[in-house]
Amino acid sequence: MEELVRPWRLGPRGRWWFDVLLAGTLFLIIPFYAIQAMVDGGAAQDMSSTNHFVDLALVVVQLVPLLWRRRHPLIVYTVVAGACGLQVLLLDYPLVSQLAYPIAVYSVARYASPRWGLAALAVGLFGSVLGSYDWLSALEAPNGATRNDIGGGTYVPVVLSLATFPVAAWALGALARTRAAYVDSLIQRNEQLRREAEQRAELGATQERARIAREMHDVVAHGLSVIVVQADGARYAAEQDPTVAPQALETVAQTAREALAEMRQLLGLLRDGDTLTRPQPRLSDIATLVEETRAGGMELAATLPEPGRAVPEGVALTAFRVVQEALSNVRKHAGPGAAAKVTVTADADSLEIEVTDNGRGAAAEESRDSGGLGLVGLGLIGMGERITAHEGTLETGPAPGGGFRVYAKMPL
């Protein structure tokens, strides 16, 4: 199973610098209000000078909290919203720094719970109504008096225009929060599936090791029994006919070497108890397996070595199991009417096995994938365990031209 690619996101340091850049860009407003307040304050101590100092204070209170909008979205929103409320009470005109309010609404909708996001949206809509009334009431009528009779044709468009900012900010924040939660759930699900696949593969490998250990018990036991019989025969021959003893001893040595090689290869897989005593399949039994498969209705062509070909018993057993599992997969996954071909080739150095079919090769591989291990299904995992025990190689996958292919090679 391929690992899910995580979407690109800013790290903690990147998010901090982004907030600094965002707030810093808005901070450029502060020097303008500061210079204006100092100029007016130096020229005359009038209401205009006082208003400019109030402007500067409100701008600072509205912008500075944005640096902490991710870590403390509710606190930042409360401070910014409170400063905007004071602005309605103290001033009769908007400030550029009020851009901080939709940013604060976005932060609540993105980083806080949904109910707090809706509460911030409701406050923003109420503020749009209150701010519009405050600013339009301060406008002068044509005769110079204060306008107190604001018509709906003027008031409603202004309210709707101002309400667009908190609504858009809340929608973007809620969408970002939902998307982040969805992506996190996908990543968590992918991690869970990966762990489950690893556990299934490990369980399959453990079961297969135990099965190999039980089967190889018979192989090693058979080798040792042959050694005992040949050793007894060599002792008897040495007493009756000394010329026969070397041949018997050579048989003992050859059998002992083969049994020792099998024990070394599978020493880590041996388990105590539950051993089987029934004879295990040999290389010649593949022909019987082929005939049984044909009798089951499968169209099967086979190219097998001569019946008398001698190979180590552990290799023969593994070859039989590989062909058996591959034909079983053809029956289960290749689809109705699929034909298969079995080729077993033995030379002086290696034994090669190839099983191909013309069924649903690629589709079957995807449906049987066991977690990106390079093998398909627990049966093929078992093949890998057997082949690896004999220092061989196993290849599985779609066959050229369609179908599925299993290829194994083991040294002799």
From TrEMBL:
Bilayer-crossing residues are 20-39, 74-95, 116-135, 155-176
Q: What class of enzyme is it?
A: transferase
Gene3D superfamilies xref list: 1.20.5.1930, Histidine kinase-like ATPase, C-terminal domain
Keyword ATP-binding appears in the UniProt entry: yes
Where in the numbering of this chain does the Histidine kinase domain appear?
A: 321-412
**Which cellular component terms (GO) are annotated to the entry?**
membrane
Q: Which residues form the signal peptide?
A: none
> Which keywords annotate this record?
ATP-binding, Kinase, Membrane, Nucleotide-binding, Phosphoprotein, Transferase, Transmembrane, Transmembrane helix, Two-component regulatory system
Domain of life per record: Bacteria
GO MF annotation: an example: phosphorelay sensor kinase activity
Reactions catalysed according to its record: ATP + protein L-histidine = ADP + protein N-phospho-L-histidine
Per the UniProt record, which EC number(s) apply here?
2.7.13.3
CDD domains listed in its UniProt record = HATPase_UhpB-NarQ-NarX-like
Identification of the protein by name: histidine kinase
Q: Which organism is it from?
A: Nocardioides panzhihuensis
